[in-house]
Amino acid sequence: MISFDYYQKTIHCLKQPKSGKAIGIDTKFHFWCKKNFKIDITSGIEILCSTKNGRRIVVIESYFAILKDIHKKTGHGARDKMGHEMNEHYYWIPAQVIDIFVQCCTSCIVRKSVKLPVTRTAIISVGFLTRLQIDLIDVRTRPDKEFQWIIHCRDHYSKYSWGYPLVSKEAQRVADYLLTLFYQFGPCKILQSDNGRDFTFISDIYT
């Protein structure tokens, strides 16, 4: 990690053809700077870049702004997705810093699914659509136009999945997509969901 003051000191060092006490630049530091960094003035301003890959060196003071921009650009992506995008342009932002940023993102915390305790009783299915598991996926932080939810349906026996986009999580909309699925493949024997009240009224709508 490098601070803004150290960044400026490195640029100043790179501009000097020689080192020594006369100009106040340590010989070892001068050699290290020449070996690892270069100055890019393509954009009209002096930008410190790595000689290894040509990417921009990021100072500590700019971490938050850059991480926020990349996190938004990647649709609130996790560390690996952000790291891949970051490596296209920037250098010297530790993976631990990205982890901390993602963990502190309010939108990601809200969207993160709650881990349920593992049941000790095995769920047994004897055929296709004997048990259909349904769940809502919240994509409000990265919607596709008006669609902010996804209804995920999964046959427990075959592990086959269906996904339908939703404008809202109203039970009526969910029930309409379930009917579409049932008209095509037939009704399931058991409809299972962990969403509780979100799906409480589905059985009342079509019974």
Automatic annotation (TrEMBL):
Domain of life: Eukaryota
Domain Integrase catalytic: 113-207
A GO molecular-function annotation: nucleic acid binding
InterPro entries with a match to the protein in the record: Integrase_cat-core (IPR001584), Retrovirus_Pol_polyprotein (IPR050951), RNaseH-like_sf (IPR012337), RNaseH_sf (IPR036397)
UniProt-listed Gene3D superfamilies: 1.10.340.70, Ribonuclease H-like superfamily/Ribonuclease H (3.30.420.10)
GO biological process: DNA integration
Coiled-coil parts of chain: none
Record-given protein name: Integrase catalytic domain-containing protein
